From TrEMBL:
Keyword Glycosyltransferase listed: yes
Keyword Metal-binding part of the UniProt annotation: yes
PANTHER family referenced in this protein's UniProt entry, alphabetically: QUEUINE TRNA-RIBOSYLTRANSFERASE CATALYTIC SUBUNIT 1
Active site: D100 (proton acceptor), D275 (nucleophile)
HAMAP family: Q_tRNA_Tgt
An example Gene Ontology CC term for this record: cytosol
Subcellular locations according to the entry: Cytoplasm
Subunit structure: Heterodimer of a catalytic subunit and an accessory subunit.
Binding site for Zn(2+): C313, C315, C318, H350
GO MF annotations, alphabetized: metal ion binding; tRNA-guanosine(34) queuine transglycosylase activity
Protein name listed in UniProt: Queuine tRNA-ribosyltransferase catalytic subunit 1
Physiological role: Catalytic subunit of the queuine tRNA-ribosyltransferase (TGT) that catalyzes the base-exchange of a guanine (G) residue with queuine (Q) at position 34 (anticodon wobble position) in tRNAs with GU(N) anticodons (tRNA-Asp, -Asn, -His and -Tyr), resulting in the hypermodified nucleoside queuosine (7-(((4,5-cis-dihydroxy-2-cyclopenten-1-yl)amino)methyl)-7-deazaguanosine). Catalysis occurs through a double-displacement mechanism. The nucleophile active site attacks the C1' of nucleotide 34 to detach the guanine base from the RNA, forming a covalent enzyme-RNA intermediate.
RNA binding: annotated span: 256-262, 280-284
Taxon lineage: Eukaryota, Fungi, Dikarya, Ascomycota, Pezizomycotina
């Protein structure tokens, strides 16, 4: 274990705690400005959120977005990142950036990736040369990117894997790799390294991992390896178990989560930060996220629907022209959706705004200590009747003192 205390480049102010659930509201002060938590972070894969300019992303009120280390490492590559002075400058983004370690992308994108104690071995997608991503290399890349939050390289395996021995090995290796990441990190005074709790769906492994990771005292803590097709009941048990063991005064990031109902329940279980490609990816298929559910605007039912994508939405796409918006109608999106880019672009703006606005409403409800009522109203809007509420959400909420069915 690293013996010296790690410097931190963030300040975490806990603003309010829900008196019933484990929900928290806080302000995370990062090198590129303060961020209100709970937060959803949109994923800008190659230093751009598909379809949006940095100004349009800023307009959604996003102040912390996610970049993929794997993609930036390939293109423009580390030498260019060093020359230009990092990803903020590359994409003229004045706000905060979080980067992943690159490991998950490799394992999920490259069939031939193989994990050894040294790191992740893979064949270059460019020319097939054998390459190796080590914890040291991942941190070096993220140091060149200059992201405000950097993630440790971890050994990720599918949560649904039945191989408990491999699961334990991955968890313990992730702890050893964290130590190597801490050792390799060149700029702890300006970039915050987050550890990643592993252990699959096994609660004992998760508990052991929490203990080991918390002892390393990183500025923030992530719960990883979830959202991989496991049952939502199991997902909630893992998040609930981990947050009970994490220090109160540090941000908690659950990786890969983005469905609105997952966000609402996960906040009740004590999580603060989330990311997911779903809101932007689904926009490219013509899907609009709304408080009554996801609408596919490629459906001909919307051909003559002259209402906004969502009534009352404050995004630039839905806002009337008189209020400085574009006044886009569902009919317009329907008609351009088939031609792809313009429709995808508009829905990306709407969906990102929806997610960020949902998190803002969540935060206000926590601050005003009415989060249980907020969650009940949220599910009542999303589902036609209580008997349609998902069982996992009812169970998880009951576990933190809220009966959605009462
Ligand atoms: Zn909108």
């Amino acid at each position: 274990m690293a013996s010296k205390a790690m410097p931190s480049a963030l300040k975490f102010d806990l603003i309010a705690k829900c008196s019933v659930t484990k929900a928290r509201a806080s302000t995370l002060h990062l090198p590129h400005g303060p961020v209100s938590l709970p937060i959803f972070m949109p994923v800008a894969t190659q230093a751009s959120l598909k379809g949006l300019t940095p100004e349009q992303l800023e307009e959604t009120s996003c102040r912390l977005c996610l970049n993929n280390t794997y993609h930036l490492g390939l293109k423009p590559g580390q030498a260019t990142l060093d020359a230009i002075g990092g990803a903020h400058k590359l994409q003229s983004w004045p706000h905060n950036i979080l980067t992943d370690s690159g490991g998950f992308q490799m394992v999920s994108l490259l069939r031939l990736a193989k994990v050894t104690e040294e790191g992740v071995r893979f064949l270059s997608p460019h020319d097939g040369t054998p390459m190796l991503l080590t914890p040291e290399h991942s941190i070096s890349l993220q140091n060149s990117i200059g992201s405000d939050i950097i993630m440790q390289l971890d050994d990720v395996i599918a949560t649904t894997s039945p191989d408990l021995a491999r699961m334990e090995e991955a968890m313990k290796r992730s702890v050893r790799w964290l130590d190597r990441c801490i050792e390799a990190h060149k700029y702890p005074e300006r970039q915050n390294l987050f550890c990643i709790i592993q252990g699959g769906l096994n609660l004992d492994l998760r508990r052991e991992c929490c203990k080991e990771m918390v002892a390393r005292d990183t500025p923030g803590i992530a719960i990883g390896g979830l959202s991989g097709g496991e049952e939502k009941y199991a997902y909630c048990r893992v998040v609930d178990t981990c947050t009970d063991l994490l220090p109160e005064k540090k941000p908690r990031y659950v990786m890969g989560v983005g469905y609105p109902e997952d966000l609402v329940v996960s906040v009740a279980l004590g999580a603060d930060m989330f990311d997911c490609v779903w809101p932007t990816r689904t926009a490219r298929f013509g899907n609009a996220i709304t408080s009554t559910g996801t609408l596919n605007l490629r459906n001909s039912a919307y051909a003559d629907d002259f209402g906004p994508v969502e009534e009352g939405c404050g995004c630039i796409c839905c806002r009337p022209v008189a209020e400085g918006g574009l006044g886009i109608t569902r009919a317009y999106v329907y008609h351009v959706a088939a031609k792809e880019t313009a429709g995808a672009h508009l829905l990306t703006m709407h969906n990102v705004y929806y997610q960020l606005n949902l998190m803002r409403q969540i935060r206000t409800a926590v601050v005003e200590d009415r989060y249980p009522d907020f969650v009940k109203e949220f599910f009542a809007q999303l589902y036609p009747s209580k008997d349609k509420f998902p069982g996992w959400a009812v169970t998880a909420m009951k576990g933190v003192g809220v009966d959605l069915l009462e």
